[in-house]
Amino acid sequence: MNVHNLMEELVYTEVNDLFDTAQKNKAPWLTCSCSQCRLDTICYVLNRVPPKYIKSGRGLAHSQMEESIDKAQMAADVSRIGLEGMKQVLSAKRPHGKPTDLPETPVFNFPTFIGRILDGMTFEPVKNTSITLYMDNRKAESIDSSWENPYRISDHTPGTFSFWVKPVGAAKEDQKKVFSFELRAEQPGFEPLQYFFEIGILSESIIRTAYTADHAYLLPDLHLFPADDQLDSMQI
Ligand SMILES: [Zn+2]
Fold this sequence. Notes:
CATH topology of the largest domain: Immunoglobulin-like
Helix content: 25-40%
Number of helices: 4
CATH superfamily of the largest domain: Carboxypeptidase-like, regulatory domain
Strand content: 25-35%
Shape: globular
Largest sheet: 5 strands, antiparallel
Number of strands: 13
Bound molecules: zinc ion
Order of helices and strands: EHHEHEEEEEEEEEEEH
């Protein structure tokens, strides 16, 4: 079954629109509009709007009318929470780093990875945990020092994490390569979490450091479950 959270797309588009509009209007409170601040805002919003899951291809059952009213309402909610999120994120601005030494082009550019960790029993976003991204069995290097790895989940964006891996040099352009990633999270009292995924990347002649909207990779929700001994004691 292919399930898809409609809100992710909507939040992604709305938040980027908010940043673009504020930038165009030279809003004085817009102190930064880099990809990291945008992603933090996206995470902030995703944590505050209920997900809306659909099975792929189900759309027809819904009347067009119902759908457009729904959508307008959701967009209004998202933009309100998005503005609030931007202001939070910009005021709690995390340190922004400089790019580390980047490889010569051509390169394999990675999308930013965004995901959530939930408590598997309560479905609440997990706070105060850190998650590490490994690429080909080694801790992945970030594109610059502001992208933490391990990522420490903050109270501003409970449950959500993001990574941006440094580009890898390629022998030539238009070369395809599959990279394997692993996410690991450890939280006392919980089973260690491991999640594997692979993505195929086509090498390019430029290094993508600027923000592009189609360049995020949304991971499925991950769940932390209490360790066995914890469960046993809960049953007694
Ligand atoms: Zn920023």
